[in-house]
């Protein structure tokens, strides 16, 4: 885990770490719904919101904006481990998943579309719509309900030489489990080497490693508001061969251009702020001499810190009993699951999840309820659950905050 001094520095770089601007002091365990925002992102957003100039004009300010955008695209490539391809800023992560999946479904050769039941509706709905529009069968691989994930072996059992497009969820925002992306992609490529593979990395991006070049995917999408930036934009990377397919663009416009209309330069700039933060953190926890090495070191340290917090939440710390040993509590994905990434979902017999969230909120601990609706029904319905409580962590959370949560749970459950 981070030592107290470094954790204090980390927390000092974020807005509203300990207090809500509306309700006062609280513990923020709702990071999967949207992480806290870097103070630098807030400053950058305000600065760029005041600039009247647009890109592509013959003046100094306009050229400076283009430089900001070019830098952000290179920062995004570095963050995602991309070589070549296109970095695309869009309306949101969901919108970009729809666009990438649409173009792959409409542009790929004949064959079926492959996905899994663990996926968030952003990718699953996009594949269902555009596979149907392209006349493709949409094959859904059942995920492992007990583990809350889908495995490379499951993909291997369903992929065929006719699989033309595939989607993969990197980490589930409901179970909290990360998938073996490299293994899944290898299983697909072994049978269908030309398959277009699109990854939903929205939940994973602030918790673990990303290397699109090493995994060999064709598209990867993130939502910056879940990785310490702000709402209002999404970022995708599209491979050269995905970019070469037909997609929405202006007649006579630049070849390979994905973006429609003038995007907010401040969005690009705030993503550079995020990458700079990871770079700074990597320098605190390693002696890496280049940015790529520092980003990798930061992610390793983040993963280790969050794993320790999750372990304390599940199994307890000091004299505080963990969720796994509290009466009537069941944990989504099981208590001991090495795939867990900064999120614990649970329910308690005899206590409604909504009531638990309300009771925790009354004690200054912000969590969230997931219902068996169009967002989470694919996970909860097979478990026979109408809802669950989601406690989602980030690396700026502390062991003291976990202790406060466990103390509150002991009081609530009696």
From TrEMBL:
Keyword Transferase found: yes
Keyword NAD: no
Coiled coil region boundaries: none
SUPFAM superfamilies per the UniProt record, alphabetical: PLP-dependent transferases
EC number: 2.8.1.7
InterPro entries in alphabetical order: Aminotrans_V_dom, PyrdxlP-dep_Trfase, PyrdxlP-dep_Trfase_major, PyrdxlP-dep_Trfase_small
Keywords per UniProt: Pyridoxal phosphate, Transferase
Organism of origin: Antarctobacter heliothermus
Protein name as it appears in the record: Cysteine desulfurase CsdA
GO molecular function annotations of the record: cysteine desulfurase activity
Pfam families found in the cross-reference section: Aminotran_5
Enzyme class: transferase
Annotated Aminotransferase class V domain residues: 27-253, 320-405
């Amino acid at each position: 885990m981070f030592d107290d001094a470094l954790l204090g520095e980390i927390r000092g770089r974020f807005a509203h770490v300990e207090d809500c601007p509306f309700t006062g002091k609280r513990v923020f365990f709702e990071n999967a719904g949207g992480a806290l925002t870097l103070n630098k992102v807030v400053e950058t957003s305000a600065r760029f919101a005041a600039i009247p100039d647009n890109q592509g004009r013959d003046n100094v300010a306009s050229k400076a904006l283009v430089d900001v955008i070019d830098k952000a695209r290179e920062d995004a490539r570095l963050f995602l481990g991309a070589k070549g391809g296109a970095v695309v800023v869009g309306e949101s992560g969901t919108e970009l998943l729809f666009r990438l999946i649409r173009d792959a479904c409409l542009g790929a050769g004949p064959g079926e579309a492959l996905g899994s039941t663990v996926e968030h509706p952003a990718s699953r709905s996009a594949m269902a719509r555009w596979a149907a529009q392209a006349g493709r069968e949409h094959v859904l691989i059942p995920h492992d309900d007990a583990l809350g994930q889908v495995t490379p072996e499951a993909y291997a059992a369903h992929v065929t030489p006719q699989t033309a497009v595939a989607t993969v969820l990197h980490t589930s925002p409901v179970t909290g489990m990360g998938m073996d992306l490299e293994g899944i992609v290898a299983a697909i490529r072994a049978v269908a080497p030309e398959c277009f593979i699109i990854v939903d990395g929205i939940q994973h991006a602030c918790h673990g490693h990303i290397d699109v070049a090493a995994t060999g995917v064709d598209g990867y999408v993130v939502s910056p508001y879940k990785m310490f930036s702000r709402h209002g934009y999404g970022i995708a990377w599209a491979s050269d061969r995905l970019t070469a397919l037909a997609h929405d663009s202006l007649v006579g416009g630049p070849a390979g251009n994905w973006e429609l209309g003038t995007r907010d330069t401040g969005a690009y700039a705030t993503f550079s702020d995020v990458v700079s933060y990871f770079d700074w953190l990597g320098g605190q926890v390693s002696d890496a001499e280049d940015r790529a090495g520092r980003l990798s070191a930061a992610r390793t340290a983040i993963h280790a810190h969050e794993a320790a917090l999750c372990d304390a939440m599940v199994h307890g710390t000091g004299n505080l009993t963990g969720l796994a040993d509290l009466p009537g509590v069941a944990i989504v994905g099981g208590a001991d699951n090495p795939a867990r990434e900064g999120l614990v979902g649970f329910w308690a017999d005899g206590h409604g999840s909504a009531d638990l969230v309300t009771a925790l909120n009354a004690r200054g601990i912000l969590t969230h309820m997931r219902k068996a609706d169009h967002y989470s029904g694919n996970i909860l319905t097979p478990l026979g659950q109408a809802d669950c409580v989601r406690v989602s962590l980030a690396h700026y959370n502390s062991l003291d905050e976990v202790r406060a949560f466990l103390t509150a749970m002991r009081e609530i459950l009696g």
